[in-house]
Please model this.
Amino acid sequence: MTPETTDTTDPATEAFVAHRNLLFTVAYEMLGSAADAEDVLQETWLRWVAVDLAQVREQRAYLVRITTRQALNRLRSLQRRKEAYVGQWLPEPLLTAPDVAEDVELAESVSMAMMLVLETLSPTERAVFVLREVFDFGYEEIAAAVDKTPAAVRQIAHRARKHVDARRPRQSVPRSAASAAVESFLRAVETGDPQSLLEVLAPDVVLIGDGGGLKQAALRPIGGAEKVARFLLGGIGKNKLPLTLAPTVVNGSPALVAHLDGELDGIMAMRIDGDRVTGLYYVRNPEKLTHVLAETALTLR
Model:
């Protein structure tokens, strides 16, 4: 377990606890898995307490360096697990506090849509992009974290930025517009009205389900408003147990929490552009629903 502060906390513990939320955010954005991010923090702590603090000029940067290296090691093993994963793999959703949604930069960086874009980068590209573009670390600091020269890091950062810019979500949507789209979507699903659902779904909407082989989910992405609407309403119609949907916020973005017969069934994160839903990410794998019951603190600083 990682440490908690007390009245007699030592300097190493104080520094770690002060930057813990930042370190978790770095690890999560690199891994897309809260469980693995927690493991990385434990590994970071074990290495941090063995460091001679008198030799550390900037504790925040040093802690991020340790976290990045541990996350890179974990990311490579995580990729092997993803290759053997049943069906589609989605990032682990996090129930986030209102201040995350209010921080546009943070909300975009941890949104399900952006996390999926980061999945298309190599491990080193992802680390460099996250540290440079999200957390604004300098090239020298990043070079020390990823064991590359500053010149190489600049090239990697340029390549990763170009790759992400070509795929990243469009401009952020005002909260009022996002809430209206969620309400329209929820109303259409609850009433089972295909036409109302088609009106809120973008023509090129994509639905991705993640059951991890433990819960039933679409094995491939479903694209197009008509196919998605048919899948959603058809699936709900087949349920013999009562299904309830309620608005929530995960990863700083609108989402719905689903309960089947009173039991947590999944989280449907949403990507909204304008007044239309362009992405639906339904996580049903119970192993990925452990961080949607209590808020997770995230920060860029």
